């Protein structure tokens, strides 16, 4: 297949999608794929954070490395239970 045929096939497949989550995932993928690469020397987000924000992030990483914190799945299970209870 040539690139034009591939693009047409993708367009056809996308028009058939009814799952909104899949569409959002594809949109995110396309946005990521089409981002311009960072220029050498361009500021990193870390450089834009305040010293207090950097310290808090570093503390959080240290706490996680030391086994403190809640695994993602456990946090999500707890959140879902609270959400169901609130309904």
Sheet-strand content, in percent, reads: under 5%
Q: Which descriptor suits the 3D outline?
A: flat
Summed up, the helix count is 5
Main sheet: strands, sense, barrel: none
Helix percent reads over 70%
Spans where pLDDT lies below 50 across 5 or more residues: none
- Rg, nearest Å: 21 Å
The ordered string of helix (H) and strand (E) elements is HHHHH
Question: How many structural domains does the protein architecture include?
Answer: 2
Q: Say how many strands there are.
A: 0
**Structural class from helices and strands?**
mainly alpha
Mean pLDDT figure: 88
**Terminal residue distance:** 51 Å
Q: What would the keywords be for this entry?
A:
87 residues, mainly alpha, 2 domains
């Amino acid at each position: 297949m040539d690139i034009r045929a591939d693009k047409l096939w993708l367009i056809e497949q996308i028009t058939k999608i009814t799952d909104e989550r899949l569409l959002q995932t594809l949109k995110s993928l396309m946005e990521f794929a089409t981002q311009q690469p960072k220029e050498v020397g361009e500021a990193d987000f870390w450089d834009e954070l305040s010293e207090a924000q950097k310290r808090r992030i570093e503390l959080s990483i240290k706490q996680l490395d030391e086994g403190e914190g809640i695994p993602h799945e456990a946090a999500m299970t707890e959140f879902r239970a609270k959400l169901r209870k609130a309904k």
